[in-house]
Amino acid sequence: MRNHSDLAKIVNSSGFPLQLAVERAVQGTASRWKVLHREHAWLHANGQSGFADLVLVNASNCVMVVECKRVLESDWVFITAEGSEKTIDSRILINNTEGHGKEHRGYLDVRSSPSSYVSDFCVVAGQDSKSRPLLERLAHEVVTATEAVANEEYPHTVSRSYGFRCYVSVIVTTAQLSASAIDAADISLANGEASSQQITEVPWIRFRKQLSNEFAVAPEDLDWSFDDISRSKEKVTFVVNSNHLVTFLDKWSLFNDSLLPLMRGG
Hints:
24% of the residues lie in helices and 38% in strands. By secondary structure, the chain is an alpha/beta fold. Strands 1, 2, 3, 5, 6, 7, 9, 12, 13 and 14 form a ten-stranded mixed beta sheet that branches. It is globular and about 55 Å long. The protein starts with a helix and ends with a helix. The relative contact order is 0.20.
């Protein structure tokens, strides 16, 4: 029979205590965030289903769907281009109902704080090289959950002429997050290794990547170029170290000027 210490280890290894700690931290933020749902069942139009760990909402009608990921002594290293700077560019799911500017349902390119580096590659030590990378799997699931939550709420926002509501995908993890700045010119074609890397620990980062074949936004200028096809499929997931979650929430906001095209429409 297992003793008290063994049972406590089983509980801690489940990841549920982290989820409870995140929930408590959210309730203590000064930025008026609250927990809307926990273990929220969702069903996507593509047939996928699951449970969102936490769904948060703030006073500005921003909804965050949060996946909590506890890992032991793990580092998640995000590759960035050498010389790249932090960005406020984001791609966020927004529903805006009729009578409140331009009616809109879907992703929109906006600007949001806090700023961060952006990456489409994440390296996790020890992961199976033959399977889909861990972060891509997590990001795909939380993005799908976010879309399902937005779709679930949409008919209710329409019936109430609710107006603006945005939806953000977030992964909160105990892993240490770092950005590795690499100059492609320093990568050997012979062994595939970068001879020089500038590695910096970061509290959060934008993970921007194609997670499926569907378009997030309509590609532009297809009559002249196909360059925008890939970019139009990219979606953004915010990856946040759990120790910095409260700061991330306190700093979160959308830049109003990036929403002007939406609000000025008729």
